[in-house]
Amino acid sequence: MIFATMFKPTLATVRQAKYAGGMKKMRFNLIAALSCLCTQLMAHPHEFYDSGADFTFDEQGRLASVRIVWIYDAFTSLYVLSEHGLDPTVSPQGDALDALLLTQVGWTAEQWDGDAYLNDAQGRNVPLGDPRNAIASVYDGRLIVVFERPVLQPVDMSGGPVEMLIYDPGFYAQYDIVKRPRITGRDDCQAEIIKFRLTPEAALKLTDLMSLTIDETPDDPNVGAEFSDRVVLRCAP
User: Fold this and answer.
1) Residue 81: what pLDDT?
2) Angle between the 94-105 and 74-83 helix axes, to the nearest 10 degrees?
3) For 60-117, where are the alpha helices, taking DSSP H only?
4) 193 bridge partner residues
């Protein structure tokens, strides 16, 4: 990953606050409670994920769903699992798994976009549905959450490539797309990961972002898009 920090706020609470509209207040409370951990906190970004996207096609050859992968950083993994009374070395099961998933993917598409954006060949947003078929596991001390999101208007790929972006608009979280995409339902498609490149202009903007206090938000509400990796999916005509 490009960035590093001494502290990251907890996902179990922040995710809930994010789609409930109380993100800013919740972030401030979390930092205030743990501010003794360091003398100075950089505001953006604070949460770090390795991530990925897989693609599934229907019988008509249309893009029908996207499978999202979140691999939490070690600090956040430990805190989230501890919040649920779970052993950070063992994958959760049964009721404990259900409770964990409720705090992480218990939102709807109307409440939160899930930091996932699908664009068609013309750059228009393609709406995604509510999370479904979620699972969670722990590997090497890191929490992994995987879930599907249906493409509400399945995409006919004859119109050109589509683009999948995973990012937090406010850049409070950074997602690093590292997982190789899997494609199910068609054998004539390819997915390419396009990594964010740190240009001099982006470096200046990043410096400004990191100077914000923890309870401030960027002037640009979609600044995270500028630092986003993306996956480009192409299929044969």
Assistant:
1) 93
2) 120
3) 74-83, 94-105
4) 231
Q: What is the pLDDT of residues 190-223, one digit of tens each?
A: 999 999 988 888 888 888 888 777 677 888 888 8
Please name the residues in contact with 211: beta carbons below 8 A apart, sequence gap of 6 or more: 43
Helix (H, G, I), strand (E, B) or coil at 102: helix
What are residue 88's phi and psi, to 5 degrees? -70, 0
pTM equals 0.81
3-state secondary structure of 52: strand
pLDDT confidence of residue 171: 87
Per the model's pLDDT, the better-predicted residue between 104 and 21 turns out to be 104
CB-count burial class (<10 Å; 0-12, 13-18, 19+) for 168: buried
Unique residue bearing structure tokens 């003794």: 36
Of 180, 183, 171, nearest to 207 by C-alpha is 171
Distance CA 30, CA 33 (A): 5
**Six token digits for residue 38:** 């360091």
In degrees and rounded to multiples of 5, residue 9 shows phi and psi of -70, 165
> What is the pLDDT at residue 214?
64
Q: Which residue has the tokens 């976009």?
A: 113
Q: Do residues 55 and 63 make contact, with C-beta atoms less than 8 angstroms apart? A: yes
Q: What SS3 state is found at 118?
A: strand
* Cα separation values, 198 from 11, 203, 204, 228, 231, Å: 27, 6, 10, 10, 17
The token duo for 152 is 């509400």
Identity (one letter) of the amino acid at 34? L
